[in-house]
Amino acid sequence: MDQVVDQLFVFEGNGEVKGFIGNYTAYRDAIEAKQKEEKNPLQPLKQKGQSDDLKTEERPKKSKRTFKEQQEYLSLELEMSKLEEEKATLVRSLGSSEMNYLQLNELSERITAIDKSLDIKMERWMLLDEIGV
Prior knowledge:
Layout (H helix, E strand, L loop, with lengths): L6 E7 L2 E6 L2 H16 L27 H28 L6 H31 L2
């Protein structure tokens, strides 16, 4: 289960559901640490604003991508190259004097949409690239 999830919804009873960022092992470790803290009141109190959940930056770094992440990584590279080719084609066609205002507007809107999509895909690709192979 640790290799499949990176976020949990914890049902604590009485209709209370809490989110936890991390895998099941990290959740169990956090619960054990919380129980130890409750048993030993002499430990220093947590600073104000700290939460029990592990934050994204506190999660241990994964040394290797999962199979699904590797597939996503490869597909993102392919999708980004296709989008960049489409964008280059659209930019070249913008220089054509045979277009009216509406066609130019449609082209510029499509280029803007491609840029946004490329930004999102690049951000995810960089995150997966950091994990490494």
